[in-house]
């Protein structure tokens, strides 16, 4: 990916030596103003995990030269990292090496720890000579002062190990038209090496003196031997002193590095343990309050943050509500609970609300930086609580913000760092998962309880409706029986006396009177026929069934034969499939076939040629005709008693035939349905158990 001026390229450890140098030799310089001009912060310099962009570095060097008046201060700062006064993270890192030569041999592995702007390589060109090449990454445009600072670092690498200043040539520079920056470094032997060489020479002189003592002039050899011995002893003592000094310095550096490493290992262990414990909380807790309380305890115990607060979105989703905190006194906790963070409204919105909306973590190194964007009352409260710096990270789950986690540590020297931000940013989503799981479990419990109550209510209503329906059905059956029996006698009296009146006095009545009597008699007969059908409909439910194999093909042929006798002149085409066997009650099946085939015969009477078919396909029996048909949107009315889809003057009937068919088939374990189109006929399907069903 191409590098831009705002891409983080330079580690904060590079600039630690600058601030140490200014503090030591330029105390009048306002470092806060310098950092503010460069867009840097003090806590970012102190954080070894922070990186700065080229734009920030250019502004830093520009202001640095201006306030110090020294154009060569960048090289001086590079050298200063070797000073014992510096004691910065860069010096501590370099002291962990065996010697300066080893640093340059591993420059390609060391450089990425401090800069991402370039690639460094080295090659040995002589006994004490190394050539370094710095090639810049695509899009990087450093400034010449960074080149001077790099040379200062090279010199510091030798000063750290008590070497003299090396000789550094810069034959090719990118700022002088070169493609890369090339450096040739030569150095003289160290003092320890020179003492060791002198010790070896004196040892040779001592051997020569001993030989002269044995084979030549004894008086002259004795003097030479004495001088050689003194030189040998002197150089030996001096070399041992320097070796011990170098060894002590190395051991001190190794001890310091080891202590820092142990602290880092312990810190990493605590962080890993914190994540593990939070994972256990998620897997073993289900209540939200219990989860939040346990998470707060882990953050306080394992990560050592002095205080922390956890805000979650309220159910109405319009305000952040405090759901947990740690490290506060009861009085301070009560004051913190009084802070409200509405998500909607006019500015200022505050850091926590901004963090929630942007879903980006925030590290505030100095709360004075946020005075302008904070609610005044809230800012006064956190200032009174002693908050100097804090971190807030959004609690996310599946891309949705659920709340904000914020921590601070008023007792920590130097404030919170980028590494703390990275840690909290990694823990916040784990907390988000636990919060979401707890919310889902709570919703499931609530829905389950609601479903249980609704199910119980529904069962009660069903039982009540079933009871009411059974009672209404019983009353309806009673009504059918009453109507069928109790009305039959007075009905016969009515149309019976009508017949007597017509027979005895018909000759004396005029035509209109005789027509009225004929209508009375005809209506009475139809009413009696309807009562008979109602009685049949009522008796279907209580009829005793005798299930046996029945040949419906033969039954259909017999019914249609009887129908043809009623209208022998009609042109009829019949299609009856042979061998249709079902299991059912023969008496009820006779009623089914008589009604279905009778309807087919009746509703196709107006056609020039009646076509009726009966058969079975895939276990489903059917009766099809080419009669009047019906609209499918009215199909639901077909099997309702007394519901008729056609004009009664054209197609007479009582409206109980299909409802009786439905009831008869249900009694035998079957069902019926119909399909039709107006003017194109209808087909009624019904199912019954096959003939071999026991």
What does this structure look like?
Keywords: Kinase, Phosphoprotein, Transferase. It is an enzyme of class 2 (transferase). Its EC number is 2.7.13.3. InterPro entries: BphY/WalK/GraS-like, GAF, GAF-like_dom_sf, HATPase_C_sf, HATPase_dom, His_kinase_dom, HisK_dim/P_dom, HisK_dim/P_sf. It catalyses: ATP + protein L-histidine = ADP + protein N-phospho-L-histidine. The two termini are 80 Å apart. The model is unreliable at 87-91 (pLDDT under 50). Helices cover 54% and strands 16% of the residues. The chain has helices at 13-25, 31-38, 42-46, 54-68, 73-80, 89-95, 100-105, 107-110, 144-159, 191-215, 218-284, 288-302, 330-337, 351-358, 376-384, 418-486, 488-505, 511-542, 552-566, 586-603, 657-667; strands at 8-11, 51-53, 118-126, 129-136, 167-172, 181-186, 307-313, 319-326, 341-342, 362-364, 390-397, 400-408, 547-551, 572-576, 581-585, 610-617, 620-625, 671-676, 682-687. The strands form 5 sheets. Strands 9-8-7-12-11-10 form a 6-stranded antiparallel sheet, with helices on both faces. The chain has a 5-stranded mixed sheet with strand order 14-16-17-19-18, with helices on one face. The longest helix is centred in the middle third of the chain and has 69 residues, at 418-486. It is elongated. It is α+β, with helices and mostly antiparallel strands and 694 residues long. The chain has 21 helices and 19 strands.
